[in-house]
Amino acid sequence: MFPVQLMTVRRSNRDGTVKNTFLFRGSLPVVSRIVETFHRSIGRTRSEILNSLKEFELRSQNPKVIRGLVYLLFRLSTLERASALDPEKVRMEIFRTARSPSVNVGERLGVLKKVAEKMGTTVEEIENAIYADLEDNLILRKVPVITPPQLLYLYNSEQIETVIMKSQWIQITLSENYGRLVRKIRSLGLLYSHTENGNLHTLKVSGPVSVLEHSERYGIRLALLVKYLLHLATWELDAIVSLRDGREKRDYRYHIDDSVREFTGISPLQMEKLPSFVHDGPDPLERSGVTIYPDYELVLDGRKTYVIVTRPRYLQEDILTLKMAGVEQDECVTVCLLEGKEKCPPGTICFRDRVDWYALRDRLLSYESKGRKVITSAHKTRREKLEQVNNNSKEIDEKSLSHLRKLFPDTDAMIDFLEFKGFPVIPSLQRAGFKVSWKGLRLIIEE
Amino acid sequence: MKILYKSGRLIINDPPDDLPSYVVYDQRIGAYVAEGFRYADLMAKYPEAEDEVFSKVTINLNHGEKLRMYQKKAVDLWMSNRSSGVVVLPTAAGKTHVGFEAIARMQTTSLVLAPTIELVQQWRSRLSRTFGIEVGQIGGGERDIRDISVSTYDSAYLMAEKLGNRFRLLLADEVHHMASGHYLDIARMYASPYRMGLTATFERVDMLHEQLDQYMGGKIFELGYEELSEYLSDYEIVRIPVELEPEEEEEYNRNREIFLSYLRRHRLTMKGPWDFEKFIMSSWNPEGREALIAWRKAREIAFNARVKVDTVRYVLNKHRGEKTIIFSEDTSSAYLVSREFLIPCITYLTPGRERKAYLEMFRNGEVTALASSRVLDEGVDVPDASVGIILSGSGSNRQFKQRLGRILRPGENKRAIMYEIVAKGTSEYGTSRRRRKGVPSSVNDS
Fold it and tell me: Considering the entire predicted model, what is its pTM?
């Protein structure tokens, strides 16, 4: 995504529409020139590179395009500090030594000499290091391996995301991958309304407060959804985008469909290649008036198992939905994808970044032979597990009580802490002065 | 009827038939919903409603601060206005004390909002000292949420869904920030029934402050510099005109002419910020771009004239040992001054840890001067700072008053002095005149 100042669009106030101004093959010489400039600029500072491109920017028909391409290349490049010294330490040492402003050359040099001596280096190195960590002073060390057409495609895709970032809601019409998209919407914390016409599904997507006010606070999440949508095969998208028009903000209609592939270079073939026992986007399951949208269907030993891929923060909600629909967990398995430092919720099947289908198959088959006890009990037994731990007689000490209070309101962390220390959960929470109650499978802790 | 809070809005379960028009049906979730700020109205209209929005917490808070008469009056008026409204007092008139008193009287969970990390850190340590409690901080790399917490506007906005029903009192320092862009979402989404805004400069040129009437309760109390002179330090404003060097002057005139001829050709006039915005909007063609670059170049020359640095040297030498803040409009000038005089510099690029350390060093006298771009314009309180140097600035009267406020904290026999260094024969002269409008002072060209 670009900062909004780098959005390149054409708007028509007459019919109230806005369109991307995409780069096309004819723009390749411009893109190539920028890539070349970057390759030639290894060893120069960021501000030097920006200055060297200023004239090119000025002469270009649309300077925003140049700035956008440069923005992308800087984001993908490796920049480093010019000095091996820690600039923050150098600064602190200089300012402490100087105390008051050095108003003449001799005084200034005296301070720098003292600091250089103390840090075992030269005055010149100290001068170099003082603000070596400022973004503009960073040195370009490595340029990404990217061809001009690839950079052009990336530019176009991110322009679409930038427009979506300013939207209040989006409406997606598609015939395939409906369930998958719904799951994505939910995992992003967005809300939707759904209409169906034959095999065409229309989803109007916005955020929780969008019904009350025009809010752009969900723009980034909508853009992430569209980033995902760009990888799907057949779709259309309509949106209302708020853009500044002089003093006022004005709403514009925006429309794209899967034909933008020509400009983004994203082919649906780039979707994950799945093993033969995994099927993508199965039909939804209708149970007790609740619709479940599994992401995948696994066929193991001739038996179907649905898979929902979720994130830790949506896990409980998904488990509850399955429970409300009366879907047994040996029919539909929830798998948690972890990002960064996220921890695997207890008793859950987790994968980091992407699902390892073969590992999942092996695990499910091994459970199969044991009657899938572990999977089916994973969350159902959270309550039992807590109650079992509650039967411990170990009494919580004052230090742990104080730590527990500090963790509030992060209830997951509180329970994890008590479980880890082996203290009975509910009595310990009550001893710490919290009110404890159950809401379905969730333990509610209140002050 | 039951009122809950979820994802930044109120959800009304088992609603009565006479729901007000601001409650709407959200078919996506099959429930009636309302914006967070309607909580107080809903509870007033339906006192019997089951309240699941806030948990019941009472906090014992006492402070030994002695309030000035006008500070007490401001809090009394705020209390009588359903504990909502904006208090407008000049910088250095003790707005923070008004905030302390409001928190002490409400004895409830409170979130203080401030626009910069410096102010957040300052509020946190002062609240902690005043009430003798641990105070939470949200923003600047911290996420320590406590019954009394301080947050940046940015973090409060980003965490609105999560924190919107955590604090009953919302105290917005420099509340004029809340009126712009997405920060207004904070006022809309938080359910806090008690709201206080503090500022020295409530009215905005874009008139967006009018929106705060609905969300923060409107202006309920205001005093100006003239009414508070006994509580502020004496001050003097001295304008120092400097001559551009011949080549700078030539370059300035050349660029200025490119800019002006573009305006003439396109029949554009520059009478206010909106005209300038119009110019920016029109400048996305090579000719306009050239004019914009010329304008920037001319401005840069006026702001960063070489002789200005020597003038700063002269002023620093004259006030050696006195605590001095040097203000500039852009970060590069601030870093230039920092490098030249070996003094700490605080800009929006300075990491939180370093900012805190520099301010602490400045407060306790380990360093006697600080350079800054716009981040120290507001709120930062260093009582014994007595010299200000404006190396460059905008024509904003609000910015000038805020900068002046940094050196007006009263002190024994203190006489504050604010220097404006202005490049002669450039548009900076007019800018200087515009920003001082309405500020009582004696202005000398010296």
Answer: 0.74
